Amino acid sequence: LIPHAIDSVFHIGRTAITPLPVIHGSLKGAQGYRVGNMAYIPDVKVIPESTFPLLEGLDLLILNCLRYRPHHTHLSLQESLAYAERISPQRCLFTHLAHDIDYAVEEPNLPSWAHFASDGLVVEVDSDRN
């Protein structure tokens, strides 16, 4: 096994992928990824200040939102909403939900640009942008 740190932009074909350093409890090296104008951050508790510039101008943010109550390694609904509002993407999908968030009850309370992701969801992104 030879570990390879992903600490800078890399490419898969012509697609640039930017690692997004985040904090996920005591786990070292946790990160999300930015691909074009989409960012995927499924396992996070804290987004460091140094990561925010990498999240500017997003069309789509996919962010974890574990449950109502605080958790030591994942974002709660309130924390996820606060980060999403700060990042200000065109659209945001909350993922990594536990069973105690009743999406049917909470979905109408989300801002119009935010939704809960679900199994089988298909999301279209503009692959020609950035």
Number of helices: 2
Spatially, the strands of the biggest sheet line up as: 1-2-3-4-5-6-7
Question: Share of helix among residues?
Answer: 10-25%
Task: Tell me the β content.
Answer: 15-25%
Distance between the termini: 34 Å
Question: Number of DSSP strands?
Answer: 7
Q: Which whole number gives the mean pLDDT?
A: 92
* Main beta-sheet annotation: 7 strands, mixed
Shape: globular
Oligomer description: single chain
Query: How do the helices and strands follow one another from N- to C-terminus?
Result: EEEEEHEHE
- Helix/strand-derived category reads alpha/beta
Q: Which radius of gyration do the C-alpha atoms yield?
A: 15 Å
Instruction: List unreliable stretches of 5+ residues.
Output: none
